[in-house]
Amino acid sequence: MTAATPQLVVHRDKELMAQAAAARLITRIVDAQAARGTASVVLTGGRNGNALLAAIAASPARDAVDWGRLDLWWGDERFVPSGDPERNAVQARAELLDAVPLDPARVHEMPASDGVDGSDVEAAAARYAEELAAAAGPGDRIGVPAFDVLLLGVGPDTHVASLFPEHPGVRETELTVVGVRGAPKPPPTRVSLTLPAIRAAREVWLLAAGEDKADAVALALSGPGALQAPASGAYGRARTLWLLDRAAADRIPPQLYPPASA
Ligand SMILES: O=C1O[C@H](COP(=O)(O)O)[C@@H](O)[C@H](O)[C@H]1O
């Protein structure tokens, strides 16, 4: 088994999955801060990512985190104006970030469409790539920091971040951040980390819950390749964890199904 081999954890339902993922993430952040003083996490948008943040907000264990020594990044963003409720960052703030004492200088939101680059999404993506490169250490791969945990929701079409099947962004091998136009899921214009940037993370955790994700999970875990199923191309340097509920795990081929878990 390699770091890219998916490890599957299947929970009873999406509520328990969010609570268990929250406990797991709090522990991972606390461990990283104990070892190195700081921690870095890449957030995802979507229902499961937001549920995880809400579960952290509701957990008394959140006080174990030194929020001022946590760097937050995003895996993707909807390229809309800064206060737009569709923005992943706006949703993350509502679920958790406004309730904890983060250092604003460590909260690295992706640019919005009313930012300095205006509607030029490629320029906005390049700007975020520069911010990542500035935070990367000399030993870090390809100009992004070695994130402790990178979270990804899995879309019903197997998209992760804003990398959609057969779309140009999923083919990118050089850039760390891309502008996405014509996304099949609205809004059509987005900013996204690329697969090479995702793979620089120590741990990649993919989140999927609900019956509408079952086909996507089964397809991605069957190894079709990243072009057809972007989620299958998302893995970490040390660990790749799929956090699922039973409904989303329901159609995984039997030979890949894990032992029964919480
Ligand atoms: O648009 C997006 O969708 C995906 C998946 O969202 P979900 O609600 O189907 O779980 C999300 O991971 C991504 O960050 C977001 O921009």
TrEMBL record:
Keyword Hydrolase: yes
Keyword field: Hydrolase
Pfam families: Glucosamine_iso
Segments forming domain Glucosamine/galactosamine-6-phosphate isomerase: 13-242
Record SUPFAM superfamilies: NagB/RpiA/CoA transferase-like (SSF100950)
Catalytic activity: 6-phospho-D-glucono-1,5-lactone + H2O = 6-phospho-D-gluconate + H(+)
EC numbers, comma separated: 3.1.1.31
InterPro entries: 6-phosphogluconolactonase_DevB (IPR005900), 6PGL (IPR039104), Glc/Gal-6P_isomerase (IPR006148), NagB/RpiA_transferase-like (IPR037171)
Pathway noted in the entry: Carbohydrate degradation; pentose phosphate pathway; D-ribulose 5-phosphate from D-glucose 6-phosphate (oxidative stage): step 2/3
Homology family: Belongs to the glucosamine/galactosamine-6-phosphate isomerase family. 6-phosphogluconolactonase subfamily.
The protein's name in its UniProt record: 6-phosphogluconolactonase
Species per Swiss-Prot/TrEMBL record: Kitasatospora aburaviensis
The organism's taxonomic lineage, starting at the top: Bacteria, Bacillati, Actinomycetota, Actinomycetes, Kitasatosporales
